[in-house]
Amino acid sequence: MKTKSICCTRLGCFGSLLISLSAAAAVVSIDPAVRHQVFEGFGEGTMDQFTPYYYREYPAASRTDYLDKLFKLDNHGLGLTICRVLMPVGDAPGHAHMNRFYGQNNQCPPSFEPEDGVYDWSNPRHEEILWKIRGAAARGAKMCAQWYSYPYWMTVSGCTAGHTDGNQNNLRTDMEGRFIEHVCKVLEHFRDSWNVDFEYLNVINEPEANWWVYWGGQPGARVTEDQAIRIYQKLNARLPLYNLSPDLVAYDAAWTNTTAYLNTLLNSSIVDDLDVLSCHQYTTSESGLFDWKIQAVLNQKSLWQTEWGDWTNAQYPGYTPGGNADTQMMNYAHKIHEALSVLKAGAWVMWEPEFIFNSQTKTFQPRKAYWAIAQYSRHVRPGMQMIHVVSSHPDIKTTAWHKQSQAAEQELVLVTVNSAASAIMVDYDLSAFHLARIDQIFRTSSTQNYEVLNVSQPSSSGIFTISMPAESITTIVLRFQNCTPLNADLIDDCIVDIQDLECLAKTWLMNDSFRTIPEFADVNDDRMVNMEDATVFSTQWQDFKAFAPIPANRAGSVNPASQMLGWSANPHAVAHQVYLGTDMASVASACQDDAEYMGQVDGLLFVPNLLPNQTYYWRIDEVNDSGMVCKGMVWEFMTVEFSSNPDLIGHWTMDETSGSIAADQSFYGHDGMLTGNPEWKPAQGRIAGAIELDGSGDAIEIPDFDWTIEYGTFTAWVNCYEVVPWAGIVYSRNGTACGIHYENINNLRYTWNNNNPKTWNWNSGLVIPDNEWVFLAVVIQPDSARL
Q1: For residue 665, which of 25, 27, 17, 24 has the smallest C-alpha distance?
Q2: Of 541, 529, 532, 528, nearest in space to 501 by CA
Q3: Sign of the torsion formed by the C-alpha atoms of 239, 244, 248 and 254
Q4: Span 110-137, mean pLDDT?
């Protein structure tokens, strides 16, 4: 069923309700004035779960290729820089239950200390892990030693898989110090005999979980907070005796929807001893991830995501072959984006890199997930800093990364994930960057594996537009010169702020003649370094500029009746001066005496008087507590036609070609949401576009809309081309589902909620012809309805 518009009229009070879906191109704005974490690297951690003995079954060339693909950038390698190593602790003699170690008779690799005080460094089975550890270290990876459990003879249960009660600690209290001795001996031997130095160390894993139980599938142990604190205290005291100084990692949390365990550690005496906070990504919540980020910032710690992997869609020996490669690809992309943009993680470490290869043969063939990771890991490199991004579309997820350098040209990397099932046009607003140009573009999708795309350059206004295919990842590498038109970015970090002012002051004070010895200090280009340079510098200070406009920059289909202007402000701003008009140049140059000046507000919201079918330009000048005014960027948006009749409760035209938001063109802005999987049909509607609802639960929902009225008329253009079991046109779930839908081709069903749901069916005498546009009008009265 195709519809052009659906109309509902409230007789005598409302006008009509028309329905259509609209989604303009997504707008992604990048603001270098707002900065986030400095990235430390991508990595991998493994216990060779479900995988064969690579060192036995794979030829040397395959093992080398595998390591190169992971830890090098050559030949499209991932360029991982972190290797998280599970240290083997073995298990009790006679135990054969570690079924998560494929191909090893349910036995994990043997411990380096199989008996108390007896160290065995020459067991041939050690090669099961040593070849990969040595290979990663030789390729420059930072090494992180990780203990999941303890040698069986240190445990309460006598089993390294856990206590008989998953809520009980399994490391004996009297063995805590002895375990730390074991850790130090192992690290010392790796350093002195195997030439592998571990820069990072963690000795507990998912300690708050209760699934580590006797005779389980892999090593693990419950560790309560009090025992964890004692372990870290003993570790910090013992390591220097062996001339070991790894950064301490805590604590590889099982989930990040809570910080209860973390808060206990950070409020204890060990807080200063911990260097890295680490968590896993299997069970998350946005609020939990945010809380972890806040704790890392407040306590000045690095923050890592150290374990996530999708084995459900993998393909490897010992597991059901197949899986969905495209689904796995998007799962990895979503999780990396979540960790970087919400958690603000400084590192992302995958679990079991074997999951991202087809490894049934003796070679490692990358799957789609491999190329999804490559979109990030090959370009977002250690030392790059994430800068602020605002996207106007919920399915367009972008992170932006700046490479700081003293070079004449800077580098900016944008990685965008399109989560939608359809292509979306994306406008990148690069106006904050000076002379930005596209260097390279790479894409992975259902039909592309890290494919290099043709490059087109941004417009003179700094806008770069590109189509993002459905369910794809695109990486854009840009080069740009100094971000600001003036040469006030003295330290070349793409932001004009207090550090540049300090640089100017030091140069000025050291130069008694006030002459331009280092030319960069001559901000106003008068061949002198003096007070005038400081004055010009101050007026161009960008540190507290407004960002993240609402509506997004260059947004279209803005409802003039319901639109409010909003923005985000840096902490320096205490007031906001609003400029608005229909001429870009006038808004850009306006001052407080001009008509474009709308006044000063204290909050982050301004309600304008807008007209339909207009292009508006606006800017926000920020005022700091010293009275300094920071002139803002000029943004624009376009309004659409709306009815002058305030009784009209909605109008949707369904002219869009993509998107999931039904933009209401009426006075009230009752936007709808697509449910199911409707398909846009550009230029195939009664007038312009249409939407296809195929009877599989497709519908347009108006969230939280109040349908409790007694009188009304609901109209729609429809084109029925086949019998369908159910096809909803529009409905609301405000207490009870309400709206209009088809039971079959000649049975129109209308449900109205007036405290009690009222339903009418037409199936007698009503004929809706096939493949023909028909205008329907349903008139609603208190106890009846007619078509």
Answers
A1: 17
A2: 541
A3: negative
A4: 95
Neighbours of 15 (CB within 10 A): 22
Tell whether the model's pLDDT for residue 237 goes beyond 90. Answer: yes
User: Per-residue pLDDT for 444 more than 90?
Assistant: yes
Dig out the tokens for 691 from the structure.
């939407």
| CB-based contacts of 748, cutoff 8 Å, min separation 6 | 740, 742, 761, 762, 766, 768, 776, 778, 787
pLDDT of residue 5: 30
> Above 70 in pLDDT, residue 347?
yes
pLDDT at 516: 40
Tokens of 132: 């990969």
DSSP code of residue 78? -
Cα dist. 99→51, 118, 213, 219, 360 in Å?
A: 11, 27, 14, 11, 19
- Give the model's confidence band at 359: pLDDT under 50 very low, under 70 low, under 90 confident, else very high: confident
Share of the chain above pLDDT 90, in %: 47
Which is higher by pLDDT, 604 or 146? 146
CB 150 within 8 A of CB 116: no
Q: Residues 401, 39: contact at Cβ < 8 Å?
A: yes
Residue whose C-alpha is closest to residue 8's, from 784, 699, 712: 712
Query: H or E element: which one contains 635?
Result: strand 635-639
Q: What is the pLDDT of residue 10?
A: 22
Number of H helices, E strands in the chain: 12, 42
Among 342, 285, 333, which residue's Cα sits nearest to residue 313? 333
Pairing between β-strand 555-558 and β-strand 463-468 as defined by DSSP bridges: unpaired
Average pLDDT over residues 250-256: 95
Amino acid type, 336: I
CA 248 vs CA 80, 239, 245, 365, 742: distances in Å:
21, 11, 9, 35, 63
d(CA 534, CA 474) in angstroms, rounded, equals 42
Question: DSSP of 156-214, one letter per residue?
Answer: SSS-TT-BSSTTSB-B-GGGHHHHHHHHHHHHHHHHHHS----SEEE--SSTT-S--BT
User: Is the separation of the CB atoms in 414 and 478 below 8 Å?
Assistant: yes
The pLDDT value given to residue 729 = 54
Q: Is the pTM of this model over 0.85?
A: no
More confident residue, 323 or 446: 446
Instruction: List Cβ neighbours of 111 (8 Å cut-off, separation of 6 or more).
Output: 88, 89, 90, 120, 151
What pLDDT is attached to residue 779?
Answer: 62
Burial of residue 779 (CB within 10 Å: 0-12, 13-18, 19+) is middle
Taking only the tens place, the pLDDT of each residue in 623-673 is 877 777 878 888 888 887 755 455 566 777 777 777 777 677 666 667 777
Q: Which of 26, 25, 24, 22 is nearest to 685 (CA)?
A: 22
pLDDT at 780: 60
Tokens at residue 434, please? 């000076």
Return d(Cα 8, Cα 690) in angstroms, integer.
18
Cis peptide before 282 (omega within 30 of 0): no
Q: Hey, is 59 helix, strand or coil? A: coil
Return the SS3 of 370.
helix
Q: What pLDDT is stored for residue 154 in this prediction?
A: 98
DSSP bridge pairs for 515: 528
Task: To the nearest 10°, report the CA torsion of 699, 705, 706, 710.
Answer: -40
Residue 136 pLDDT? 97
159 dihedral zone (left: phi>0; alpha: psi -120 to 50; beta): beta
